[in-house]
Amino acid sequence: MSKSVPTVGDMVLYHVTQTDKNDMAPHGNIAEVLPAVVVADWGSDTVNLKVFTDGQGPDLWITSAMKGQSPGYWEWGYQYHDRMNS
After folding, report:
1. What pTM, to 2 d.p., does this model score?
2. In the chain, how many domains are there?
3. Dihedral angle, C-alpha 57, 49, 30, 82, nearest 10 °
């Protein structure tokens, strides 16, 4: 059974926006989707995230991200993996 509501400490995937890419570009490789940990949950599907990047740049903090599959949104990791392997 899938988990529906995120809580602090959960690992998710964050879909990077163009602004995120521009901010991180000088500091490492920028992927379309990056791993993140939930650092605050605001109920339902809205969370604050600490995003992990592949480089030594500044931290990427995302506030009030909602669940979805578009840039600026997060989703559960296994859903992304399953979608890419189907």
Report:
1. 0.81
2. 1
3. 150
